[in-house]
Amino acid sequence: MTSNAASHDTFSGVFKRRWKFWRRPGCAPAQRQVARHRCDGRPQIAWVLLLVLQWILAPAARAQLLPLAFPGAEGFGQFASGGRGGQVYHVTTLADSGPGSFRDAVSKPHRIVVFDLSGIIRLQSNVAVSSDLTLAGQTAPGEGILLYGRTIAFSGRNNIIARYLRFREGIAGDRGKCSLNLSGGSDMILDHCSIEWGRWDCLGLTQGSHDITFQNCIIGEGVDPQRFGSLSDSVTNITYARNLWINNQSRNPKAKGRIQYFNNVVYNWGVCGLVGGHSATDHFLDAIGNYFIAGPNSGPHCVGEFTATDHVFQKDNFVEMSRNGQLHGRPVVPEDFGQGRDAPTFMTSLTVAPQIKVILQSAQDALADVLAHAGCSLHRDSVDARLIDEVKSFGTRGAIIHTEQEAGGVGELKEIHAVATFNEDAADN
């Protein structure tokens, strides 16, 4: 159960964001509509009463009253509202900039971004998104959208929902950048996204970021110079659930903060799979129901680089090291994490409690779920299809690459046009 203090802080943040939104002077009703109540320049009485009720009730009861980002949202980012009630912006071109472009769509807050076409958006420079956005990649026709060639930055932003999008920086991006950079951000959920080909890490999650969920994503196949999965550093209340981490030299992720790590699959790590914080600062990690499967490049450590300041609760994790095309995994044991000075401090109960229960599966069921649904999986493109097939080889295929060209390059996504529709109450549109 989350402590009352932590719940108070989380709820206080939600209250402040919504109060600021409702009190915005001079806005049109269409811009300030919340939960289908007309905005007349004052906070809606019904919502104020609801907030007071939530404040009084126990933390678990309060959580049940808050609307989810979408059906199926879990973890610490599950209550993000994104662009709910804001302008619906239609992306109508694959051009890097200009009217109807993705860059223009995310340049202002309080928007629901939908896609009237499919294809590859070849970015000429890095893109910084605004706060209070819903990026509805599931609205794109055909095989969906790929954002390719540069970094997408969510840094310093809050309240974002991103679903069914591909973020791939590639070797032409800036050295030291990630496919998705997120420093100092909060209250976000990324669902069914493919975050790949980052030059430093595929995902950079740092500098006080908090209350964020990554679920059903593929995070991997980093490229030169580091070829890492994610540095998750100085973060609080982060949920990683049902993600595939694949073909990363290390950092799947590097867990420095307070992190839930549930039902992930890690395939073909290089030096190490899941990495501890390994610093003087106390870190907290709950690792439950994950499956580690060695590939052609994998060293002996599916988990490692821990120390006594890493407080770890681990349960029901499995590892398969044979690389023979068969899956007969064994349970992960404390000795796998390290021994002596390299061992974490093992806890007997959860150290990072969810706001409400996160659905947990066995490691075996999680593997099947990830293979079927991880990444931008409404229509998997050739890159993600190849990665999934590598996992299904159970150790015989896969490679840690230097550039995306070594793995076949960016591939093709056919440009198809169809006017998007969006229903905020639907799980998939």
Share in β-strands: 25-35%
- How can the largest sheet be summarized? 15 strands, parallel
Count of spatially separate domains: 2
Query: How many beta strands in the DSSP annotation?
Result: 27
Terminal Cα span: 33 Å
Question: What are the SSEs and their pairings?
Answer:
Layout: H1 4-22, H2 29-32, H3 45-56, H4 59-65, E1 87-91, H5 102-105, E2 111-115, E3 119-122, E4 127-128, E5 133-136, E6 145-148, E7 152-153, E8 158-163, E9 166-168, E10 180-183, E11 186-191, E12 194-196, E13 201-206, E14 210-215, E15 218-220, E16 228-241, E17 244-246, E18 254-262, E19 265-267, E20 272-275, E21 283-288, E22 291-293, E23 301-304, E24 310-315, E25 318-320, E26 330-331, H6 334-337, E27 345-346, H7 363-373, H8 382-392
Parallel strand pairs: 1-2, 2-5, 3-6, 4-7, 5-8, 6-9, 7-10, 8-11, 9-12, 10-13, 11-14, 12-15, 13-16, 14-16, 15-17, 16-18, 17-19, 18-21, 19-22, 20-23, 21-24, 22-25, 24-27
Antiparallel strand pairs: 25-26
Helix pairs in contact: 3-4
Give an account of the 3D structure.
This protein is of the alpha/beta class and 429 residues long. The chain folds into 2 domains: 4-66, no CATH class; 87-373, Single-stranded right-handed beta-helix, Pectin lyase-like (Pectate Lyase C-like, 3 Solenoid). The chain is 17% helix and 28% strand. The protein contains 8 helices and 27 strands. It has helices at 4-22, 29-32, 45-56, 59-65, 102-105, 334-337, 363-373, 382-392; strands at 87-91, 111-115, 119-122, 127-128, 133-136, 145-148, 152-153, 158-163, 166-168, 180-183, 186-191, 194-196, 201-206, 210-215, 218-220, 228-241, 244-246, 254-262, 265-267, 272-275, 283-288, 291-293, 301-304, 310-315, 318-320, 330-331, 345-346. It has a 15-stranded parallel beta sheet that branches. Strand 1, helix 5 (102-105) and strand 2 (111-115) form a beta-alpha-beta unit. Helix 3 (45-56) runs antiparallel to helix 4. It is globular and about 60 Å long. The model is unreliable at 1-43 (pLDDT under 50).
